[in-house]
């Protein structure tokens, strides 16, 4: 664990390129949930608030502080919910190379909830 950059360090800012991985002794599921993901509508510039769940299956998991800084990095980014879920799934898959499920629920707008799911799987599982 000495290779971890974010864990145990002082205050740090948003970091989209700093997702860190921890190896587990045994495979299993790990889910991360947050109600603090914010991005912006690319058309109106208004903030979009999200609840996100990221589920990993395998022997790798994300270090939670690096994930917090990663999620924070989306604040101010103009991106639709569908693209945001895909980008997060891609980024997490890139560092873990294992099953990733992302569920993104956008807070209600005009009486409509938006729920987007994205999955990534290693090619050898198909």
Fraction in beta strands: 35-45%
Number of helices: 2
In CATH terms, what is the architecture?
2-Layer Sandwich
- Helix fraction bin: 10-25%
The tally of beta strands, per DSSP, is 4
User: What value does the average pLDDT take?
Assistant: 91
Widest sheet: strand order? Answer: 1-2-3-4
**CATH T-level topology:** GTP Cyclohydrolase I, domain 2
Cα(first) to Cα(last) distance is 32 Å
Q: What's the order of the H and E elements?
A: EEHHEE
What would the principal axes of the Cα set say about the shape?
globular
Q: Specify Rg, calculated over alpha carbons.
A: 15 Å
Textual characterization of the structure:
With 126 residues, this protein is α+β, with helices and mostly antiparallel strands. It is 20% helix and 44% strand. It is built from two helices and four strands; from the N terminus they run ββααββ. The chain has a four-stranded antiparallel beta sheet. A hairpin with a 2-residue loop joins β3 and β4 (112-120).
């Amino acid at each position: 664990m000495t290779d971890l950059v974010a864990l145990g360090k002082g205050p740090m800012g948003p970091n989209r390129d700093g997702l860190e991985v921890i190896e587990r002794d045994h495979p299993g599921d790990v889910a991360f949930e947050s109600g603090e993901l914010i991005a912006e509508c690319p058309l109106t510039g208004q903030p979009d608030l999200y609840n996100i769940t990221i589920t990993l299956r395998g022997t790798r998991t994300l270090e939670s502080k690096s994930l917090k800084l990663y999620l924070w990095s989306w604040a101010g980014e103009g991106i639709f919910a569908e693209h945001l879920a895909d980008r997060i799934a891609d980024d997490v898959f890139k560092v873990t190379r294992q099953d990733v499920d992302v569920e993104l629920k956008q807070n209600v707008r005009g009486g409509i909830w938006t729920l987007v799911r994205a999955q990534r799987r290693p090619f050898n599982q198909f």
